[in-house]
Design a protein that fits this description.
Blueprint: H1 11-20, E1 22-25, E2 29-34, E3 51-56, H2 63-80, E4 89-94, H3 103-118
Parallel strand pairs: 3-4
Antiparallel strand pairs: 1-2, 2-4
EC number: 3.1.26.5
Family: Belongs to the RnpA family.
Protein name: Ribonuclease P protein component
């Protein structure tokens, strides 16, 4: 289970991570990361811990499948939040194939997406491509 202080719950926080954060797509999921050291809702307060939220739509499967995917993703993110800067917002969006995927496949895609986001890829631009 993901501790309460590490859960992303507010609609505004989800929107901030998705709209202003960087994105890394994989076959089973898309990860949005908004790195930051301050919480816009608590000026002057101490730096909050990194928080994660999950989006699993009906395209992934029925309610049982969606909840299984969410539980797996929460478990995986619990161990990875310590590697993020304090105040970071992470949204993990499961894609339709995630319902049939195994735990190892989800682990591989999540790790690859986080490596790409934390490795400093030039804002999603692939190597060798010229800027537009």
């Amino acid at each position: 289970m993901l501790p309460t202080e590490n859960r992303l719950r507010r609609r505004e926080d989800f929107a901030t991570a998705v709209r202003r954060g960087r994105r890394a797509g994989r076959p089973l999921l898309v990860v949005h990361l908004r790195s930051g050291s301050t919480d816009p809702h608590a000026p002057g307060e101490c730096v909050p811990p990194a928080r994660a939220g999950f989006v699993v739509s009906k395209a992934v499967g029925n309610a049982v499948t969606r909840n299984l995917v969410k539980r797996r993703l929460r478990h995986l993110m619990r161990d990875r939040l310590s590697g993020l800067t304090p105040g970071s917002l992470v949204v993990v969006r499961a894609l339709p194939g995630a319902g049939e995927a195994g735990h190892d496949e989800l682990t591989g895609d999540l790790d690859a997406a986080l490596r790409r986001l934390l490795g400093g890829a030039a804002h999603g631009r692939a190597k060798g491509k010229a800027p537009r």
